[in-house]
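Journal club prep, notes for RB
We'll compare a predicted complex against what the paper describes. Inputs for the 2-phosphoglycolic acid case:
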Amino acid sequence: MRRRLIAGNWKMNGTVPEAISLVQRLKLLVSDVQDRDIAVCPPFTLLDTVSKMIIDTRIYLGAQDMFWEEKGAFTGEISPLMLKEFNCTFVILGHSERRWIIGETDEFIAKKVESAIRNGLTPILCVGERLEDREAGKTKDVVISQLEGSLSLVKDPESIVIAYEPVWAIGTGKPAYPKDAVDVISMIREWYGSRFGKDKAEGVRILYGGSVTPSNIDDFMKESEIDGALVGGASLNADSFARIVKYLL
Ligand code: PGA
């Protein structure tokens, strides 16, 4: 049985006082949740604050990116060892905003995924098609090519989470239909099985992301193929994120 994961991606948002009040309230609201994993992924500047606040909780910490080297002359970058210092469990890699705004390639992402795993972090690898890909009927080709590229250096995929995030659904208020998300997620699982073996494919968590809100999370979580959600905008408010965490309760 795969344990579901609800992860909040704060993106480039939050001051220290904002993070403190959000996490204080979130801790209260989710303290009784047992059967699912919860993670928050604040910007690097808030990892220290949030890390200290969640020590006594079941909330995991994630970062939103990292560089593949452990240290050295890489101005502006953050290494996996630095993330581990703050007790990060997860690191989001290959988010579409990094692919399409910052210009990250699959080759870069592959090095990051390999380094994250080698250093004991669990990557949340994001894949997903743009609107023009979907309209051209290329969703599966695009997603498979991202998977092949981003996972090309992985030998032992012991700890990987995949997030299927159609680019057209991110931050637009237009989520995918749950059935359409299931189609792509099942295809991802099939591909994963052919690459790493059936057992690994059964175990890998594949999340959906893109305009997940308190009002649509239950519909996604009714689908047994969807192992959780990566939540952007709605994770910036403790009440709405807590409601998403408490799907179907
Ligand atoms: P959204 O973002 O929930 O604001 O659409 C999701 C994401 O980018 O991970």
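Talking point for the session: The domain at 5-245 is CATH 3.20.20.70 (TIM Barrel).
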